[in-house]
């Protein structure tokens, strides 16, 4: 049986590589060089668009842990990245073209992979892995819409996410407006002086310049307006919008605050919270600087910054299993950024998961059960958790999505090191349990 992989980006190449290494015949479809998206320029596979950095290399970081797990699972892109690394301090950065050439060469020389250069608009017969990325072409996007119903978004409009443990508990408090229902929101009260200082910095902060092909959705989507655009409409606009203090009592003063920023749970465990109404197009450094002015967020750890850009992705929690197969169409898998895994290596990891799952299914092998305390397991759980249905936004690797370590470790580096050690040991045990190396 043949596996069809649609798209030769990071996820598609990983999916094809993993399936082929099981001895499965793979057809890898890629529309370049016949056709390019508005962002792609190089005809090689696994083209890096926004940056040449694959983030931190150290194991005791979320990005480093993810790459370590990917190598344990037989990654193609991580070894290629290391072979083509350039100096970048503690990060793994690459020469883009050499990295792409290396991945392309290995894919094209694999005896089990057939590369077909054409745009796919309808799925071929058989098992399919859709890895078409955030700039999926029109024909394929129409096919995906038919598969997913309304569960397809054409842009990212996400607020920043912070870790709960990094917030100043002496300044914030849990409450709901008028004390109705459960106290699920974290409230960050601001007095007039604090609010006006925040307002002035916000409206003057540096914004990201959108590319031509990204501008249209934001010119029409009033309901997801960037917080800085809302603020620019007037000094009090935010106070009548997402920062309205009505129904909230500041526990420190016993009075209604001048303004209040609310944070809402991002995951079931309550380790991550998003800033309600703070969709933004500010540069990441500006988000850190300006949003840290909010009461209680002075030392906040941002695990994801807000974004406003073109990014086709499906509502994965309503559609996918944890192996990235569709619940209603189990012979169809999705992989990469289109599933809501944000970032180069996160996308590539999704390809490994989908390609491995498809191959093991064909061969009748027991599926890999990625432990919840691994980064790959936590990401796959995030995109397939029904709890996220209806409020789903893309997520990258971060320590906040891992279950608590159960031991209080104050030093951040040591704490993250403990998370990483636990994850590596858990994944090693699972791979040994199923005889992973003997199957490939």
What would you say this structure looks like, in words?
The protein is an alpha/beta fold. It has two domains: 288 residues, FAD/NAD(P)-binding domain (3-Layer(bba) Sandwich), CATH 3.50.50.60; 145 residues, Elongation Factor Tu (Ef-tu), domain 3 (Beta Barrel). It has 14 helices and 16 strands. A six-stranded antiparallel sheet has the order 10-11-12-13-9-14. The chain has a five-stranded parallel sheet with strand order 6-2-1-7-16, covered by helices on one side. It has a three-stranded antiparallel sheet with strand order 3-5-4. Strand 1, helix 1 and strand 2 form a beta-alpha-beta unit. The two termini are 17 Å apart.
Give the DSSP E fraction (strand runs of 2 or more residues): 15-25%
In whole angstroms, the N-to-C terminal distance is: 17 Å
- Overall number of domains: 2
CATH class of the largest domain: Alpha Beta
Strand order of the largest sheet: 10-11-12-13-9-14
Compact summary:
With about 450 residues, this protein is an alpha/beta fold. It contains 14 helices and 16 strands.
Main traits of this protein?
single chain, alpha/beta, FAD/NAD(P)-binding domain, Elongation Factor Tu (Ef-tu), domain 3, 14 helices, 33% helix
Q: Topology, pairings included?
A:
Elements: E1 2-6, H1 10-21, E2 25-30, E3 53-56, H2 62-72, H3 77-83, E4 85-86, E5 91-94, H4 96-108, E6 113-117, E7 127-130, H5 138-148, E8 152-158, E9 161-163, E10 173-175, E11 185-190, H6 192-204, H7 215-220, H8 227-231, E12 259-265, E13 272-275, H9 284-291, E14 302-304, E15 307-314, H10 316-319, E16 332-334, H11 344-362, H12 375-384, H13 412-433, H14 436-439
Parallel strand pairs: 1-2, 1-7, 2-6, 7-16
Antiparallel strand pairs: 3-5, 4-5, 8-15, 9-13, 9-14, 10-11, 11-12, 12-13
């Amino acid at each position: 049986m043949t596996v069809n992989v649609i798209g030769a980006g990071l996820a598609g190449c990983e999916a094809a590589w993993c399936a082929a290494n099981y001895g499965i015949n793979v057809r890898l479809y890629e529309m370049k060089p016949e056709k390019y998206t508005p962002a792609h320029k190089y005809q090689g596979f696994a083209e890096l668009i926004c940056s040449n950095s694959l983030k931190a290399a150290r194991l005791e970081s979320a990005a480093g842990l993810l790459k370590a797990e990917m190598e344990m699972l037989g990654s193609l892109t991580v070894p290629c990245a290391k072979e083509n690394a350039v100096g970048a301090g503690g990060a793994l950065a690459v020469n883009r073209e050499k990295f792409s050439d290396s991945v392309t060469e290995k894919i094209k020389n694999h005896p089990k992979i057939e590369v077909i250069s054409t745009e796919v608009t309808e799925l071929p017969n058989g098992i399919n892995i859709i890895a078409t990325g955030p700039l999926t072409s029109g024909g394929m996007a129409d096919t995906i819409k038919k598969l997913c119903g309304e569960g397809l978004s054409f842009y990212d409009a996400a607020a920043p996410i912070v870790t709960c443990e990094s917030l100043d508990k002496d300044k914030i408090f849990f409450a709901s407006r008028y004390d109705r229902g459960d106290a699920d929101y974290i409230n960050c009260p601001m007095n007039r002086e604090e609010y006006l200082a925040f307002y002035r910095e916000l409206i003057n902060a540096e914004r990201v310049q959108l590319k031509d092909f990204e501008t249209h959705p934001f010119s029409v989507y009033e309901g997801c307006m960037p917080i800085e655009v809302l603020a620019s409409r007037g000094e009090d606009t935010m106070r009548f919008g997402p920062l309205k203090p009505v129904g909230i009592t500041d526990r420190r003063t016993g009075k209604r605050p001048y303004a209040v920023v609310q944070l809402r749970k991002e995951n079931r465990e309550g380790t991550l919270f998003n800033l309600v109404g703070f969709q933004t197009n500010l540069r990441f450094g500006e988000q850190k600087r300006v949003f840290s002015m909010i009461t209680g967020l002075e030392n906040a750890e941002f695990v994801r910054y807000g974004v406003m850009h073109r990014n086709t992705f499906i509502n994965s929690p309503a559609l996918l299993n944890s192996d990235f197969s569709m619940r209603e169409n189990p012979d169809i898998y999705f992989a990469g950024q289109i599933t809501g895994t944000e970032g180069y290596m996160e996308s590539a990891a999704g390809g490994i998961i989908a390609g491995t799952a498809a191959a093991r299914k064909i061969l009748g092998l027991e599926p890999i059960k990625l432990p919840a305390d691994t980064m790959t397991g936590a990401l796959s759980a995030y995109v397939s958790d029904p709890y996220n249905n209806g409020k789903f936004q893309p997520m990258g690797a971060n320590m906040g999505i891992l279950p608590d370590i159960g031991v209080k470790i104050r030093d951040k580096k040591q704490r993250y090191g403990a998370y990483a050690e636990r994850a590596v040991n858990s994944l090693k045990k699972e791979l040994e349990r199923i005889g992973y190396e003997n199957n490939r």
